[in-house]
Specification:
By secondary structure, this protein is mainly alpha-helical. It has 2 domains: 44 residues; 33 residues, no CATH class. It has 3 helices and no strands. Helix 2 runs antiparallel to helix 3. The longest helix is centred in the first third of the chain and has 42 residues. The chain is rod-shaped and about 130 Å long.
Length: 103
Amino acid sequence: MRRRRGGVGLLGVAAVAGVAHHAGTKSAQAQAQEQAQNQEIADLQAQQAAAPPAYAPPAAPAAAPAAPATDLTSQIEQLAALHTAGVLSDEEFAAGKAKLLGG
C-alpha cells in the first residue's frame, strides 16, 4: 500500500492560489476606490474654498427706535397727575421730570 504524502496536492495549491489572487484583486480595487474618493473630496474642498459663501449671516439688527414723543408726554402727564394728587412733592416731581427729559 502506498502512503500518501502530507501535502495539499495540486488542487489544494490551485485553490490557495485562486483565493490569494482574488484577495489581491479585491484589495487593489478597494485601494483604487479609496484613492478616487480622496481625490473627489479634495476637488470638492477646492471648489468650496474658491466659491463665495452661499449663505451670509444676517446683518446685526438695527437699534430700537427712540421712544416716541407721545410716550414721553404721557409719562410727564402721569407725573403731573401724581403731583396734583399730592403723591409727589415739588422736588420729586421736578426730579422725575428732569430724569425723563434727560437732564
